[in-house]
Give the backbone structure.
Amino acid sequence: MSASEDLFQFLSQKDRFIPQLSIDSVIFGFHDNQLKILLLKMKGMKLWALPGGYVEQHEDIDGAALHILENRTGLSDIYLEQFRVFGKADRTTKESMQLFLEANKVEMGEFQWMMKRFVSIGYYALVDFSKVTPTPDHFTESCEWFEVKNLPKLAFDHYEIIQKALESLRLNLDSKLIGSNLLPETFTMNDLQSLYETILGTPLRRNNFQRKVLSLNILERIEKLYTGAANKAPYLYKFKKA
Amino acid sequence: MSASEDLFQFLSQKDRFIPQLSIDSVIFGFHDNQLKILLLKMKGMKLWALPGGYVEQHEDIDGAALHILENRTGLSDIYLEQFRVFGKADRTTKESMQLFLEANKVEMGEFQWMMKRFVSIGYYALVDFSKVTPTPDHFTESCEWFEVKNLPKLAFDHYEIIQKALESLRLNLDSKLIGSNLLPETFTMNDLQSLYETILGTPLRRNNFQRKVLSLNILERIEKLYTGAANKAPYLYKFKKA
DNA sequence: CCAAAAGTGTTAGATCTACACCCATGT
DNA sequence: ACATGGGTGTAGATCTAACACTTTTGG
């Protein structure tokens, strides 16, 4: 099935959705000591974009966000947080639409439904990088991780959405046990510290960090991890179950 | 003009608005050492509701929220914060609509546009109680302040919206200089402390509170306030201009 | 034995908490 | 004079930041 056939099929069902309302999700993962985001490139589009979608008439918005995520990552049970609505009147103008579309391949007229002004609800998700299978769908040419510090050209206000998501992530870092969603089952204290450092963007002191985290009583110390390196083997930890 | 004439006029213009998207505002004021909220009772409706409205096609959502507030309070320059979206599929079911409407006076069929499922963006506003003139409009039978601790029966999920607004208010209390929006130009340290105590719901120590607040260097001490009471006159303060 | 990284101790400073005391005001 | 409420001081506890030291590991 071609991209435009998919599109027409989608548009024919557009009454299923709430008009002019979309969801955009910032999916955070952590790998190689880098905070990463999953981005999409749609077929025939020039710019990268956040994975997003629409809300069905009889679907909770949280449910809609979750479905989008499950489709894009292959995971269920994802940590999701709604963080802000993006509703400037000019966020999806024809001009920014033009930038988004590959003008010579797609007739804007066919997109009447999509071309309207959209208000978008921003969610961020925290996932275990190692468990995700980035999954393009029929509209999507590619689906890749990007380092937060090295993002490609993005459509619309998606850069701003990402920045706000990061802000919220930082604010929630302490109160919401964010590590437990971004790290694999077991991890070293160093892994956790790197995660915090990359999210916060500041270096932390090893000893004080360890003391503080352990004092929260949320970690369980497992066996040591022997990497073969010529130094003391670090303990592995996992988050205690509630 | 009668309520239903107003309504028909409104509905005839409904294409001006984004469908199925609304705004609900929790307007906080502080008076008599009580945190209060401005609520409306629509003509011919049974329950009280948050002041709300719709978003015009070419209007920012923040702008829309601001207009609603200005109309209801007579104030401009209001402190506004978007705090959450309420998007459960069943938040505006026919059943809850029925509860909201005075069933024998209004035919639901006339409300097709309004009867759809709505997603609502929650804003909270902080206003100087003494400056507000609660202003009913043509749809509104009354517009009154209620103590947060003593709310009337509310429509839809408005009670939940208020609770979430309160939560956000508490979280933002320290970081966003909330006092400057809820208090009049000048106030005593006691006023400020009462405000904090009612928002947080916990008593604070007089001396420590004063020290902490003054250490922030955001207050300017003015002259003393002689109330005629048989005790030392408290200083008046005002927030320093940025 | 050594380098590298992990783990633990310790101490000075800042901040928070609770108590105490003094000061101004009108009766 | 004194009751009342406002302003300030201070000692102890707690939290934080920065430093130093010890332990484990493989070469």
Q: What stands out?
A: The radius of gyration of chain A is 20 Å. The beta strands of chain A are 17-31, 34-42, 48-49, 52-56, 79-86, 119-126, 140-147, 187-188, 219-224, 235-239.
